[in-house]
Amino acid sequence: MNGNLEGRLVVAWERVASALEGLHEETKRAGKRFWPEPGQQREAVLTRVETEEDRAKKRLGLADESIPINEWLDIGDTGEEYIGERTAQWLRDHPKENKEAKIVDAGSEASGKQDAPSPKKTKSKA
Question: What is the b/e burial string over 62-77, where b = at least 16 CB atoms within 10 angstroms of the residue's CB?
């Protein structure tokens, strides 16, 4: 190789290097536009719409969220569905109509489970 050819090759490689450097800078700028660096994280703020239950608690002075709903309604923890005094009395007064119904009084244990009613005997019309 002669000196003139080597000089031209050096100049050509310098131009290729500067072009690649420019291309690198351009892709870096485009990348920042599409994928910006994440900023400092902020504390999450949770909000919700106030419900009727929340408004009722505030009126009664029970706005503390740590109070369980059963305690707030004074139902107690029976583990069974509370049906009320009047309904329980009606079920006791009409046992034939409601043999499978469970009666749970406030503060008392559930009554024992009764057997399923037997089929009624009917007279045939034939």
Answer: eeeeeeeeeeeeeeee
H runs (alpha helix) in the chain:
3-34, 52-60, 69-73, 85-93
Q: Are 83 and 104 in contact (CB under 8 A)?
A: yes
Q: 3-12, 13-22, 100-109: lowest mean pLDDT where?
A: 100-109
pLDDT tens digits, one per residue of 36-86: 888 898 888 888 888 888 888 788 776 666 666 666 666 555 556 667 788
- 74: helix, coil or strand? coil
In the prediction, which pLDDT does 70 show? 65
Compare 21 and 61 and report the one with higher pLDDT.
21
The length of the chain in residues reads: 126
Cα distance between residue 46 and residue 3, in whole Å: 74
What is the spatial distance between Cα 52 and Cα 54, in angstroms, rounded to a whole number?
Answer: 5
99 contacts 117 by C-beta, under 8 angstroms: yes
